[in-house]
Write a structure and sequence with these properties.
Elements lengths: L1 H17 L2 E2 L1 E5 L2 E10 L1 H10 L3 E2 L5 H14 L5 E7 L15 E2 L23 E6 L8 E6 L4 E9 L3 E2 L8 E6 L4 E3 L5 E2 L3 E6 L6 E6 L8 E3 L19 E5 L2 E6 L4 E3 L6 E3 L11 E5 L2 E5 L4 E3 L6 E3 L11 E5 L2 E5 L4 E4 L5 E4 L12 E5 L2 E5 L4 E3 L7 E3 L12 E4 L2 E4 L5 E3 L6 E3 L12 H6 L10 E3 L15 E3 L24 H37 L17 E3 L7 E4 L4 H18 L1
Parallel strand pairs: 1-12
Antiparallel strand pairs: 2-3, 3-9, 4-9, 5-6, 5-7, 7-8, 10-13, 11-12, 11-14, 14-15, 15-16, 17-18, 19-20, 21-22, 23-24, 25-26, 27-28, 29-30, 31-32, 33-34, 35-36, 37-38, 39-40
């Protein structure tokens, strides 16, 4: 008890020493709003409010905005006043949001309520602050943005508390002055915040009486200590300050009492209905008040005109979401279009989702675009028509890019150079091998093709003898060359094996070339075989043996000298033996028989 009295005395001394600032005050619920007349910029006004434990006043909903308008009207203030809404430098104006990117100085959720008189200037480089303009001949009350450094002659502050005490009851004649915890002194308050010091100046009394708003009390609520009514007098004067009954006892100060069905309030002067909320007269919250009940609604609902029911607030009407908004009972939900995901602490904004960051989205390359993505193929591959995102290897060899054989590779190709040529560094061409004293020269495809070099395209081709080299066609024997086993290119692997649409016109033409080449080769082989057969028959006729002569069975003997007499020597005559004669006769007989 002594500690309480000491604390009360200390508060009295502080109140007398400071005196308090004269300002218009409106208290309701658990907050007080004040109007201060001072020429300050937005930052200076916010510093003044913060010094006393508050912030520049917000207007988060229609009820709070109405309290600020009532405050300006009660003070008779015709000009604008700073409120706690600002856009810091480096943050851009967002036209699609209710607060347009501005934020309340007290922090918390931005809310869906706004009262812009005109759209704020779109900027990201300068700080902008908001003032409240009261209703007047120029139009309705609302918000307007301006540079934060430009001073205004007034500003509004808000101070929040745990609870309130009612007006201090007086039993006798007197005046009450309230000094609030935020340094404002006012002669009248409909509700005094916790910690308010009340000074009662009783008429005809010895000195002022003081009371402090304390709490919470047992059963809840806040009350003055010491309880009223102050300025004690007889019950005959103003019913002793009591709402219902004033009781007097000999030697005791007057005290208050209530009618049946009511209970004395914590201020010991007013009366509250007993169990007034038992019949559930409110759809939302219910609070017993002197003379009745006070209904309230939860966040997301507003009190109906009848004062008892609660109506759902359609927050989507104020456009709080970037993409889509769906109203729910007492709240709302923001939805993002396909390809986007919610972002930010409240989930009202949407950002593009990078589908390419997920593995396996595309077989090769993935290109992210706003709200979607595209699949692409690496060089050397192409999209397969009608097969989704599959990439097929392009068979570059079908375009005949090499002077000699061509080998298809996954995504590329390789030229196999004929003898006398060297491959280029990139493997896509051949150059003539350098000779003594000569530089290597590039071998054009047309020159190399006239030499009749075989190409490994998978079909047989015939080589011809160069006319430019002076050799006649008949001197050479046509040769049919196939693809060497070691030079046979592997079958195309990689993603696909079907050529793309750009090769569809070359396929039949190449197939026709292959068939014609094969027919020419077969005809040449047949001609060669016939010529070879004719030559052999001619040679056989020449080599046929001659017919035997009948004289071959005879032999000649040398002549014998014949002796003559005086008549001299005779010339030698051939001598035929008897055996030979016999044989000759037989031979003639045989011939006759054969001729017959």
């Amino acid at each position: 008890m002594a500690v309480a009295r000491l604390l009360l005395l200390l508060l009295v001394l502080l109140a007398r020493g400071s005196g308090g600032e004269e300002a218009e005050v409106v208290c309701a619920g658990t907050a007080c709003y004040t109007l201060h007349r001072a020429e300050l910029g937005w930052n200076g006004a916010q510093e003044r409010c913060r010094h006393n434990g508050g912030n520049l006043a917000p207007a988060r909903g229609p009820a709070e905005a109405e309290r600020l308008r009532e405050l300006l009207a009660a003070a008779g203030w015709p000009g604008p006043a700073w409120i706690g809404l600002s856009l810091s430098r480096g943050r851009c104006v967002q036209p699609q949001e209710p607060l347009r990117g501005f934020a309340w100085a007290a922090g918390g959720e931005p809310g869906n309520y706004s009262a812009w008189l005109s759209e704020p200037a779109v900027t990201c480089l300068s700080a902008r602050c908001v003032s409240l303009r009261p209703a007047g001949p120029s139009g309705a009350a609302g918000w307007a943005d301006r540079p934060c450094r430009a001073p205004l002659p007034a500003f509004l502050c808000k101070f929040s508390f745990r609870g309130m005490c009612g007006p201090l009851p007086l039993a006798g004649p007197g005046r009450v002055s309230y000094t609030t915890p935020f340094g404002v002194r006012s002669p009248r308050l409909a509700a005094a915040p916790f910690g308010t010091l009340a000074e009662a100046d009783c008429e005809g009394g010895e000195g002022p009486a003081f009371a402090l708003c304390k709490g919470p009390l047992e059963g809840g609520g806040f009350a003055w200590h010491p309880p009223g009514p102050l300025c004690p007098a007889a019950c005959a004067h103003r019913n002793g300050g009591c709402q219902h009954r004033c009781l007097e006892a000999p030697g005791e100060p007057p005290r208050c009492a209530c009618h049946p069905g009511y209970a004395l309030a914590p201020d010991m002067a007013s009366c509250l209905p007993e169990d007034a909320c038992r019949s559930s007269p409110c759809q939302g919250t219910c609070r017993a008040r002197p003379g009745g009940v006070e209904c309230g609604c939860e966040a997301g609902y507003t009190l109906a005109p009848d004062g008892h029911r609660c109506l759902d607030v359609d927050e989507c009407l104020s456009g709080p979401c970037q993409h889509e908004c769906r109203n729910t009972a007492g709240s709302f939900v923001c939805l993002c279009r396909p390809g986007y995901r919610p972002t930010g602490p409240d989930g009202h904004r949407c950002r593009d989702e990078d589908e390419c960051a997920q593995p396996g989205v595309c077989p090769q390359l993935c290109l992210n675009v706003p709200g979607s993505f595209h699949c692409a193929c690496r060089p050397g591959y192409q999209r397969q028509p009608g097969s989704g995102d599959a990439c097929l290897d392009v068979d570059e060899c079908l375009r005949d890019p090499c002077p000699g054989p061509c080998r298809n590779l996954p995504g590329s190709f390789e030229c196999l150079c004929p003898p006398g040529f060297l491959p280029e560094e990139d493997g896509h061409g051949c150059r003539a091998a350098s000779t003594a004293g000569e530089e290597p020269a590039q071998a054009p495809n047309s020159t190399l093709r006239t030499t009749g070099m075989p190409q490994t395209t998978g079909a047989l081709r015939t080589t011809s003898i160069l006319q430019t080299m002076g050799a006649p066609r008949t001197t050479g024997i046509p040769q049919t060359l196939g693809v060497p086993a070691e030079a046979t290119p592997p079958a195309p692997t990689a993603v696909g094996s079907v050529p793309g649409p750009e090769h569809s016109a070359d396929g039949p033409r190449l197939l026709l070339y292959y068939i014609l080449g094969s027919l020419v080769a077969i005809l040449l082989l047949l001609a060669f075989a016939l010529a070879l057969l004719a030559c052999r028959r001619r040679a056989a006729k020449r080599e046929k043996q001659p017919v035997k002569n009948a004289a071959d069975n005879y032999c000649w003997v040398p002549e014998q000298p014949e002796s003559r007499g005086a008549g001299g020597e005779r010339s030698p005559q051939p001598h035929v033996s008897d055996t030979n004669r016999t044989g000759l006769a037989e031979d003639k007989t045989n011939r006759k028989s054969l001729m017959k």
